[in-house]
Structures are given as structure tokens and as C-alpha cells.
Amino acid sequence: MRKVYTPTGGRHNPVIPVLGALLLTGLVFLILPFTQMLSNAHKERQMFTRVDVSLPPPPPPPPEPPPPPEEKEEEKKPEMEQQQQPLNLSQLELALNPGLGGAAAAMNTDLGFALSRVDAVEEMKIFEITEVDRKASVTFYPNPTYPAVLRRERIVGKADLTFVVNADGSVGEIENIENVSHPEFINVFKDWVKQWRFEPAMKDGKTVPQRVRQPLQLNP
Fold it and tell me: d(Cα 140, Cα 96) in Å, to the nearest integer?
């Protein structure tokens, strides 16, 4: 008969497999809570971790448009008449003589007026050439007194006078005299102009005082 081989060996201890199984089971039970703790800790970190997100700053507001420039009222520039030649005695006589022909009729008898800058508060009652409806014009003047010494020396008298023509046509304050050719002519021109008479200026149908600037010339 054929022999069946039967291995020979030591006897197995049945306790060892049981202990191994118990050890593995204990390890599993130990690992599971630890794994759960790790999972919970991770969840808590995810739950309570605040993430600060830096948002870009808002765009700056658009710049305000610049305020419109203030419209400055342009100072009313006086309408300067053409520079008149100084009137000598013969020209004044022609201007005041109604019997002359067309040349005299065409001559403008109005005095040349120039606006001088004055304080508007102090001079409210004195009108300028640009403020009146009709300008003052000379109607009478006497012969001036020419200094004898200056006449002999053939010195021509010249000056620019600024004065006020009152509402009644008389000459009021002589405010300024300049560009005088000789000092002795200062009083000559002042005394002479004081005797002039005017047709007064008109504004809104009323006679009003007006400031006058007139160049004058006296020939010896």
C-alpha cells in the first residue's frame, strides 16, 4: 500500500491565535477613537478658522469738477474820446460865435472830458462823462489875464485841468491841474476857468454835476 506522508512537528498552542486576535481587536478599538478625534479636530479647525480676505480698496471718488470761474464784472471802461487839441482863444471864440459859417457850425463845442478814477462813495453826486445823457458844454468864458513877463518872453501857457461843472452850469471845485508849462500859469488857469459858464450835463431829464478834464493853451 501507498504510504501517506504526515508531517511531524511540535504541538501548536491554541492560546497564541486567540491572543493575537484580541490584540488586533484592541488595536482597532484604540485607533478608531484616535481617528475620530483627529477628524473632529480637523472639522473644528475648518469650522472656527476665520479667513481674512483683503478686499481691494474701493476706487477713489471722481474728482469734483472745479467751480466755474467767477465772472468778474469788468470795470466799465470809460469811452475815451479822441485826444482833443488844446483850445486857444481864437478857437473858443469861433465855437461860441453863432454867426460863423459851416466850419464853425461843424466844430464840436463840447469840452473834452476824461474819466478820472474817484472814490465812488465820496463822489456819488458827481457824474462822469459815461454816465450822463448829455455832456456839459461851455457857453461863456472871459478873456484870461496873461502874465506880462511871460508874454514878453513869449512863453506859451499849457495845462490840463480837472474840475467839476455844477448842476447850475457854474464851475465848482478845481480838483487837479497838471502838465503846466510854467508855474505862474497855475493860478492863471484856475482863476480863468472859475469864471466859465456851462450848459450843465443832463441825466434822466435833470441837470446834474459832471467831472470835466480839459487841456488848455494860451498863446502870448
Answer: 8
Domain at 89-218: CATH code: 3.30.2420.10
Domain ranges within the chain, ordered by starting residue: 16-45, 89-218
Q: What is the mean pLDDT of the chain?
A: 73
pLDDT of residue 82: 44
Question: What residue type is 4 in one-letter code?
Answer: V
Residues pairing with 161 in the sheet: 177, 214
Confidence of residue 205 (pLDDT cuts 50, 70, 90): very high
Rounded to whole angstroms, how far apart are CA atoms 135 and 128?
A: 9
Share of the chain above pLDDT 90, in %: 40
* Torsion angle, alpha carbons of 59, 62, 63, 66, to 10: 180
- Residue 57: pLDDT band (50, 70, 90) is confident
- State the CB neighbour count (10 A cutoff) for residue 42: 10
pTM above 0.85, yes or no: no
Q: What is the mean pLDDT of residues 142-152?
A: 91
